[in-house]
Design brief:
Length: 312
C-alpha cells in the first residue's frame, strides 16, 4: 500500500548455518552458485532466488525454528503444497527441517510485482482474484480456521478504543465517530463467513506479474475460510493507494458486485481499526518499516471509508 520494497532486514543465504545450506543443496542435487535476497515484505527470515551450478533456479525461504515467525513459514509451506494446480502459485519442491531451522524451496517464477495504477496490470490482478474464488470454493483444504476465529481477536480495535480510550493522536474524524466506528466494526464477522479458502494478505508484494501477463499469488501464510468477497476488499486499500478508486471495481467485479455495501463497510472499518492500533506499536525485530506501512494503510483506508460512509 505504501512503498513496500526493502522493508525487512532479512537473513541472507550465506548467514544460514552450514548444515542447513548443505541439506538444501543435497535435496536440490546441485550446489548454489549465487543467491539474490528478496527484500520486500515484512518478515526477517531468508528469502532468496538461488541460481544453481547446473543452471536451474529456485526460490527458497528459511527461518530459525525458535523465531516467532517460524509457524508462519511452516503454514505457508503446508498450505502452498496442498493447493489445487488451478491456483496460480509456485509449486513447493520440498521442505527441510534440520539443525533447528526450517526451509522451504519453491519453483522459481520470473516476474515482478504488479502496478495497480496501470490499467492492464490491474485487470490482470482482478482476473486472478476471480480465478482464486473459482478454484478455492469450496475450500480444498479441510483444516483452515474460519476468518472469524482467526481474525476476530484482532479486528476489534475500535471497540477497544471505545472501551479503554483512543490513542492521543487519533484523527478528529475518528474521535468524533468513535462509537459509530465501534458499532460498525462489531458487525463484520457474520457477512464475512463462507467456505472459500482465502489468502487474506493480497497486496502487490504478494503477487508476481509473469512476462506472459498472468498474475501469480505467493506467500500463503494466513489461510482461512470465509466469503470470497473478502479477498478483493482486502486488496482494495492497495488499489486506493495507487490512485485508483476501488468502488467502481467492487461494483463490477464478480466477487463483490452483489455484496451488501454495509458488509464491505464493516470489514473495511475493522481493517482501519487494526492498522490504527498496530501502527502505534513498537517496531518488531527485523522489520523496521512495518509500522510506517501500517500507518499509511490506515490513512488511505480511512479516507476511503469516509467517502463510503459520508459521516460528518
Amino acid at each position: 500500500m505504501s512503498d513496500i520494497a526493502g522493508t525487512a532486514d532479512r537473513i541472507t543465504w550465506g548467514e544460514l548455518p552450514q548444515p542447513v545450506r548443505t541439506e538444501i543443496e543435497r535435496h536440490l542435487g546441485a550446489r548454489v552458485r549465487s543467491a539474490a535476497s528478496q527484500l520486500g515484505g515484512f518478515s526477517h527470515g531468508m528469502a532468496a532466488r538461488l541460481l544453481l551450478e547446473d543452471g536451474r533456479r529456485v526460490f527458497a525461504k528459511a527461518i530459525n525454528c525458535e523465531d516467532d515467525l517460524s509457524g508462519m513459514y511452516k503454514t505457508e509451506a503446508r498450505t502452498a503444497a496442498r493447493l489445487p494446480r488451478s491456483v496460480p502459485t509456485p509449486s513447493v519442491q520440498f521442505t527441510v527441517d534440520i539443525a533447528g531451522w526450517f526451509a522451504v524451496v519453491f519453483d522459481d517464477l520470473e516476474g515482478r510485482h504488479p502496478r495497480l495504477g496501470q490499467p492492464t496490470e490491474l485487470r490482470a490482478v482482478l482476473a486472478t482474484v476471480e480465478q482464486l474464488a473459482a478454484a478455492l470454493t469450496p475450500s480444498p483444504l479441510p483444516d483452515p480456521p474460519t476468518i472469524a476465529d482467526d481474525y476476530g481477536p484482532r479486528l476489534n480495535c475500535w471497540q477497544r478504543f471505545a472501551e479503554l480510550g483512543p490513542p492521543r493522536d487519533l484523527d478528529s474524524w475518528s474521535l468524533s465517530n468513535l462509537d459509530r466506528l465501534a458499532e460498525l466494526e462489531s458487525t463484520w464477522s457474520e457477512p464475512a463467513a463462507g467456505d472459500t479458502l482465502l489468502h487474506t494478505d493480497l497486496r502487490p508484494d504478494n503477487m508476481l506479474l509473469h512476462p506472459d501477463g498472468a498474475v501469480w499469488v505467493i506467500d500463503w501464510a494466513w489461510p482461512c475460510r470465509g466469503a470470497a468477497w473478502i479477498e478483493l476488499v482486502s486488496l482494495a486499500p492497495s488499489v486506493a493507494a495507487s490512485g485508483v478508486d476501488p468502488d467502481p471495481i467492487l461494483a463490477a467485479h464478480s466477487s463483490t458486485r452483489n455484496v451488501d455495501p454495509a458488509a464491505i463497510n464493516a470489514f473495511v472499518c475493522a481493517l482501519v481499526g487494526y492498522w490504527e492500533n498496530n501502527s502505534r506499536l513498537p517496531a518488531p525485530p527485523g522489520s523496521p518499516n512495518l509500522r510506517r506501512h501500517q500507518s499509511h494503510s490506515a490513512q488511505v483506508s480511512r479516507a476511503w471509508l469516509r467517502r463510503r460512509l459520508t459521516w460528518p
